[in-house]
Design goal:
The complex is a heterodimer of chains A (146) and B (294). Chain A has 146 residues and is an alpha+beta fold. Chain A has 2 helices and 10 strands. Chain B is an alpha+beta fold and 294 residues long. In chain B, β11 and β12 (263-269) form a beta hairpin. The chains are: A alpha+beta (146), B alpha+beta (294).
Chain lengths: 146, 294
Amino acid sequence: MTDRLTAGPLSLVPPAGWKIARPGGGADAVLFAPKPPGGSFQPNLVVNSEVFNGSQAKLSTVTLAGHQVMLTEYHLIDVDVWSAPISDGRRFEYMHRMGGGLLHCVQYSTVVNGCSVHMTFSAAEGQLAGLDATFLDCADSVEVVA
Amino acid sequence: MSKIPDREPRLDEEATVDAGQPREELSGLAIRQPYRSAGPWLSPAAQRLIGLLGPRAVADFSPDDNLLVGTRGGLGVFERRGQREAIKELEDAELGTPEGSLASAGFVCTAPLRHSASAWRITGQLRGRASLLQLWIGSDADALVLAGPSAHEQFQTDPDLPGFSGHAQLDYVSAEEAAAVVTTWLGIGPSWFRPLKVSIGRDVYDARTGAAEVDATAPPGVPATLWDNPWMVWQIEQSGGPSSTFLNAAAAGHFQVIAADGQAVLERIPARNVYRHLVGSFAGNSVDLEVPSA
C-alpha cells in the first residue's frame, strides 16, 4: 500500500522520489523533486490551508487577485475545474518570475470543511513537459481527511 | 484573511448555466495581461541589418584559449551606403558600432542566427491589423525574439490608427522560455472551457478576420458569444515547414482553425493546451491538442 501524506485537511500520495521537507512559513506540507543536475530549479509542491468562509467561486477570485499582487511578471494561462474527490475545485496554471528564472505553476485549490486549501506545484519553464503527468497523478490522489 | 470581500464574485452566466454550478467571471483577465519586454524597438531597416550582420560574425578563442574573440562581420564600404540610419539605430540600442559592425551585446544576442536549431514566424491579426513575432532558437539553448505589437497592445490600439509599421522589440532569452514569451505575446489566457466545434463558410471567416467592423448578427450555427468577442487569428510557421492556424476569441476561448471543403472549422481547445502546443513545437515534438482531464 502506498504511503499517504496528510497535509492540512487533505491527504495525497507524494510523487515517487520526492522528498518531504520540514514545512515553513505556515505551510501544511512541502515536497521537493529529486535535485536536477546543473543547479537548475528544484521542482516542488507546497500545500497550505486556512480558515475560509466563502464559495469556491469566491476563493477563485480571491486567489487570482492574490497572484496579481504577490507575483512578479505574472501571467495567468488557464483556469479550469478540478473535479477530484472534492466537489467543485479549481485548477490554475500560471507563470511568474522568481530569482531570475521563469517558473511555471499548476495550483489546485478548493474549499473543504470551512478551509481553503491550495496545492501549488512549481517548476522551471523547461521542466514542465516532464512533470505534467506527475502533477496530475498527485492531484488525482487527493482525498479529504475524515 | 481579513481582506476577503463579503460579496460573492460576479458570475459568468452562460458558463454557470452550462455547468449547473457557479462559475466566476474570467473575461477581462486575459486581455489585461501585458507582454513584457525591456528590449529596444527596432525599425524594419535595423532588423534587416541585424539579420545581415548576425550570421557574418564569427566567434573564436584567443590563442591561449581564454578569451572569446569575435570577428564581428562589419559592412563593406558599398554596403554601408543607405544604412546610416539603421547603423545609428543599432548603435543607440548598444547593439552595433558606428562603423556598422556588431557591438558585444549585438554579437551575443545574434548567436541564434549563426547557430539555429529552428526559426519561427508567428503572425497575428486583429480587426484587420497585422503583427509579427519572429523567433530563432539557437543550438546553445538560447533564443532571439523580434516581436511586433503584442495582442495586448493590439486590443488596446485605436482601430483608426495606422497599421503595423514593421517595428519590433528585440529580446534575447533562454530557449526554454520561448514558449512563455510567445504565450504572453499572443495574450493566451483563461476562459471557461466547454467543447465546441463550428464550421463557417470560408468567405464569411475571411471577411470576419480581416474586417475592422463586425456584422452585428452571428451567422447561422455560430454562437453569439463566439461571434461577438474580438478575434485575433494567429498562425505559427516553422521556416520551410507547414503552418498551423489558431483563433484567440478572448472570453469565448481559444480555437484551432482547420480549412476543409470551403469551410473554416473552429474547434475550441483549452488555453493550457495552446501553451503545450507551443512548447512541443519549439522542442520539435508534436503535441496532441485533444482535451485532457484537468
